[in-house]
């Protein structure tokens, strides 16, 4: 028997309608690519997004078509998103940091018919446009005055396109499971794979992400998403902010410490979110200038693990609460956030910071469990660590066009590729990537834990741990060290330092010293490169 | 094209699973019907609810069956709800304050197969059990020790039923639109009509109601729903609290000021919700004993308009923020909540209180508009008032078994029967019930506005306004006054007092004095009775 409740599909347009009716006066402030600060309101966004939808419809875009956006966080990017979704088309956020061959691949794979592109990225697309014939029209996100000379096909200024029509457009209505957005993950192997968000997943995820133990934002808040819209939906903020009526502050292309700091202060931002790299630049800038943060209450930090010193600086020096966050493109992306729980309010600041080093608790609608190699569930005791698996209405069920095949197990769980603990209070902590865990005699050793201990040595600049083959134990850890300038620290000194800080059987079988550890574009250690580099390294314990 | 997100139906069981995994240690505290305070955790609730589901399945209850509950807010009532829903059956909350003939009607109409009943209400059901033959089993919500002598058919003690099985029960999985709950509205005319909630509507409504500008609750909060679970889902709190990990404090049957105050203090409640009557009792109790509230931050007040003096006392005397709330059984029930918006933080306390007299802003997923008699939308300017209409995924599309016919217009709007304004910031204020508005010469006069002005006169104890027929203006207002003891205030003095406080053409055409104004069980003025009483009253202005 069905309930007798209204059929009210969870469409992105309902979020913008809500903002228009209830928060029409609330501001959206953008540092434009052209330079000046632009201000308008949710009522304006509502109107302009309908113009975008109408203009796209005029261009022949229909339900299900993909429209690319290669753009910073700006009001125009928001308009494009809501206009595209309001027509029933699919925004495809293109990460400009991808290699040209990856850009060619994903634009063709997505079959983008139109691409909205910021001034900054026009040269990138010009360089590959011979290989992306699917794109019929390039919309340059500027006005006629700033329009560049460009060879891009059918290039049109965004403002000309939008102002060529009025806002008399009724949002299309369709099934809430209709595709709304597409974002490719740049895996370390193989081609990027597309995650295809639906209206339902975006709306539900926005509702969950805005809640009090997550972003905790309402109409009094001013939110600045520094995390780009092309990076996993700007962590849902483009949906959360209009849903909750929060002021939005869009930083555009300038992510240096000075630019971010001035927006935080000038626009009285209360909540912001980005990866650690951005906050490192901000903290450095503030320390150099002896600056303060006068309105910021909370900062969400994710993308990679947040260093303890960063949590300490925000909380102790600036009075800003840090929310460690974890998620994945495949999860829309928020999985966990590190809001403290009842009882923890009485912890000392240092104890709180220790708790905050964990990646946090699942928001409602995200299910998590950890399993061993045999898919047996492990206890949530904060000690056992295993494969982290997730389920939920905003978790991918597969990749676009079936790439990668079936990605769920029989019970619908998605394997994140992370290895973690979960404690009895629900706090999850990433221990390692599954492919980096060292499997020694059927037991697991966390490479990250070993690295964290090793970098505690005063003469160690950076540390990485990989597993090497071992005749008896299958794998044993090799510790790779970059010494600090002028140091001559030895293997024995390092191992002596680690003794007592880790389980005896976790002790690395060997230590290698190198000049530099290779990193990815986002600052993560390239373990695959290290494994290649040390593939002929023979562990002293491996002698038969 | 569909998105590629997981099929994860929004079922009530997902809420309890979330609480169990992430907030298993969090407390649920109940003042039991038997007397003592009972304490356990969400992990216990999770376990016991599965026992209820398993026990009901053993009793032959299947998907879609209705199971009645006639019970106070207790941990057992929660277990019954989640057990019933987890099996795919439908909880039917029975309001014990209904007249016996209404109880007979709704239990038969719902075809309840089992009824869970608190000790308090056993005599009521005994009195009507000959007329409710559909009920096969009565479960008395107590243990063997407290089991009363009863003639109720197949009466079994709740604890015996639950402890007769273990908790090895896997929640049933089904379409999220499956019926979950049933609640009858006690309309002023005709038979009660059943609102049939779905799992989807309950889950979505819980997500929206918990957000920062609504209840604003998280895992640090302790929530006490004084509003009964049989009164429109306890305003969603039974869903919000486990979803957010808030501690739950269940007041049971004792709603007097002393009992409520001691729970608020002893259990460190931060958020509570109920109708004005309850808060009047609490405020009187606190004033008499010169008591304080040491942890309560916010109180939601709805069901009927919250008097200004109540807002003032909570905010000024006790430092508790008042959230005026409005909703309907047909809306699951929350429609609006009066959270202030950006900019209002700088208002004086009196200005804030004035703003809080409005019923508040729509939560996300509730659409509102006001229309004139021709269904033309009126402006959201805070001045125009019209029929308040709503849409949303937790708004009824019809009543159980089709009673009352089609209740939505062609665009899916449900007419609330209220007349209201909506201002440009989204704040809605109820002006009147549509049936009580006085239609004078094609224009509307709010009976409530006139009453509010009239009761400002120091010698007026209570005032009511009804429309009487008028040959020229169709209707004109009659003001009906109950004088304060010893007063002899006259018609002319009353009208002189009102002069200048209302539009000239709103001035009542006559004033009548009576000893007592008739009220409903919930304290509302019975205008229908007044219209009957004054049906032969002739307005002096009506002489041709």
List the SSEs and their pairings.
The structure is a homodimer of 544-residue chains.
Chain A: H1 12-23, E1 27-31, E2 37-41, H2 42-58, E3 66-70, H3 75-87, E4 90-93, H4 100-110, E5 114-117, H5 122-128, E6 137-140, E7 156-157, H6 158-163, E8 179-185, E9 193-198, H7 199-209, E10 222-225, H8 237-244, E11 247-250, H9 257-266, E12 271-274, H10 276-289, E13 298-301, H11 308-318, E14 321-327, E15 334-337, H12 349-356, E16 361-362, E17 367-371, E18 386-391, E19 414-422, E20 428-433, E21 438-440, E22 443-445, H13 447-454, E23 460-470, E24 474-483, H14 491-498, E25 510-513, H15 527-533
Parallel strand pairs in A: 1-11, 3-4, 3-5, 4-8, 5-6, 6-7, 10-11, 10-12, 12-13, 13-14, 24-25
Antiparallel strand pairs in A: 1-2, 8-9, 14-15, 15-16, 17-18, 18-19, 19-20, 21-22, 23-24
Helix pairs in contact in A: 1-2, 1-8, 2-3, 7-8, 9-10, 11-12
